[in-house]
Description:
- With 379 residues, the chain is mainly alpha-helical.
- It has 2 domains: 207 residues, no CATH class; 150 residues, Rhodanese-like domain (Oxidized Rhodanese, domain 1), CATH 3.40.250.
- It is 53% helix and 5% strand.
- The protein contains 14 helices and 5 strands.
- Strands 1-5-4-2-3 form a 5-stranded parallel β-sheet.
- Helix 1 packs across helix 5 and helix 11 crosses helix 14.
- The longest helix has 24 residues.
Amino acid sequence: xxxxxxxxxxxxxxxxxxxxxxxxxxxxxxxxxxxxxxxxxxxxxxxxxxxxxxxxxxxxxxxxxxxxxxxxxxxxxxxxxxxxxxxxxxxxxxxxxxxxxxxxxxxxxxxxxxxxxxxxxxxxxxxxxxxxxxxxxxxxxxxxxxxxxxxxxxxxxxxxxxxxxxxxxxxxxxxxxxxxxxxxxxxxxxxxxxxxxxxxxxxxxxxxxxxxxxxxxxxxxxxxxxxxxxxxxxxxxxxxxxxxxxxxxxxxxxxxxxxxxxxxxxxxxxxxxxxxxxxxxxxxxxxxxxxxxxxxxxxxxxxxxxxxxxxxxxxxxxxxxxxxxxxxxxxxxxxxxxxxxxxxxxxxxxxxxxxxxxxxxxxxxxxxxxxxxxxxxxx
Length: 379
C-alpha cells in the first residue's frame, strides 16, 4: 500500500484520539488543573507541554541528522508577529477565563463536562464573529508574512544551540515544577536520572555536532537526484526577472576568485569565498543563488551548503557566461521556433533593462583568432 495515497484523516484521526486520551489521563481536561497552573499552584501543564515539545524537537533533530527524515519538508505556518501577538492576547484572555485551551476544551467536552461544552461553544462563536471583527484588526496583520522563519535563522546561530537552549529551559521549568509540586507530594524532587536529564544530554550532544556527521545513503541519494534533475539550478533569464521584479529574500553570491572594484558582477551580488560559506546563515524566506565563472566553485559551494542542511540555495546554470550571453547580449535565434523567439523577447527586454545590447546577428567583428571558449553545460 502506498502511504502517500492515504487520506490525511487515516493518520490524523487516530493521532488526535491518542492525543485527547493522553491529555485526559494526565488531568488536563480538568479546568482546576489549568487554573492551578495559571495561579502557580500546579505545574502539570508545564511538565506535560514542555515534555511534549522537547520530545518532538529532539526526535526531529536527531532523525534529521541520521537522514531518516528531511526536516525542511515539514510544514511550517508563516510568521506574522503583529497578528500572532494580537492572537496571543485574545487567546490568553480566553484561556484564563475558561481555564481551558482548544485541545483541553475538546477533551473536557468529550468527558461530559459542561464547562468544556461551554468553552467549545465559545470557540465556535469566536470563529463566526471573526469576519465581523476583521476590518478592525486587519491593520495588525502584516501584508507579507514571513514563510519558513526559524529561531535559529533569526538569531544567526546554529540549530543545535537553539535545541540545547530550549531543552535547558524546559528542564529548568520541570525542575521548578517538581519542587513546587513536592510541597504536596513526597518524593517528587528532580534527580539526575530523570528523563529531563536524558533530554538535556541528547540536546547537548546535538549542539556539539550541530546535527552534522557522515551523510546517510538517503541524504547522498537525495543530493544526487537534485543534481541529476537540475533542480539545483536557476536559469539566467529567470534570475534576471527575479532581480528586476525585486524578489524578496533573494541573495546572490559571487564566488569568483580575484575580484576587484572593476570586475562586473550581477546586480545585487555579494562576493564571497568558499571558506566564508561555513559562516553563512539563511533566514526564513531567503533564497541563495550561487554563481562563478566556469561553474566549478558554485557547484562545490552548493554541495557544501547542502551538507550543512541548507536547502535554500540554487546554482546559476552555466555561470557568468550564461548571464553575459543570455541576459546582457542575447542573440536573435535563426531557427523559426516559437519558444526560442519567446525566450529572446524576454531576454531582449531584460538586456535593455540591465544596460545590455541585444544582437540580431552574431558579432563577428569582435571575434579574435582565438575566440573565447563557450562555457556551456557547466554548473
